[in-house]
């Protein structure tokens, strides 16, 4: 029975991911022989107003999120009893089904949107500073860029903090996707989109399916692959591809990669290539690398 319910959740999320750009709002039900939708998950509109809920690729992974067996760096990694959190960390959050949990989720989403806007202002200010002609104008623009980018960094930090703790308001009923294995496992769908980021959706409990994180990476087509590197301590990564559509330079993933020293490659190849995020902590995806491709990148 759990396998059947989980499969239903996979199908329901897949139906949502394939909603065409022209569809706009998420449909309340899906169609198809022997398919019964249990829940549709809308995507936040971060960068592409004309492509609301435009899903692309979809991958699934069951990741140990707390207790023994959690990869180093995961929020609940420890050698303690299954489900327990390591000292100074929090266990994986349960779906936000209470009013308090839903309010926390909305607050986290608002913080993420604010961080995305701040990142865009930072990027625009840096561009203006480069284009300034006189020394005085350059100096003034540089100071403004420094101030805006400092604010963007703080906004990003706040958004990450809220993303980590947003659903810890409610922890009862946290179900283990693989109770026969050490630690707490949760099954996630990693759903790509046209320009509006990589969405991480907890599908462990079909009726409580919830989007737990969005990596604001404004690229398209947004094909995704998820894999684990056991030679790196069991860490999880996701590749996310850009193949020539609109490139949103102010999105979070671009800012993260510039901070890692990939700015020249991003600019030289106009963003075309494969973006790599670490998803060991699926509630907080973070850019770790970029591989440019002149002829664009695909699944």
Automatic annotation (TrEMBL):
Top-level taxon of origin:
Bacteria
Does the keyword section mention Flavoprotein?
no
Q: What is the lineage of its organism?
A: Bacteria, Bacillati, Actinomycetota, Thermoleophilia, Solirubrobacterales
List all Basic residues biased stretches.
128-140, 154-163
Q: Flavoprotein among the record's keywords?
A: no
The signal peptide stretch is 1-25
Q: Which UniProt keywords apply?
A: Signal
Q: Which parts of this chain are annotated as the region Disordered?
A: 71-140, 154-181
Question: In its UniProt entry, what is this protein called?
Answer: Secreted protein
Recorded source organism is: uncultured Solirubrobacteraceae bacterium
Compositional bias (Low complexity) at which positions?
A: 71-127
Compositional bias ranges of the Basic and acidic residues kind: 172-181
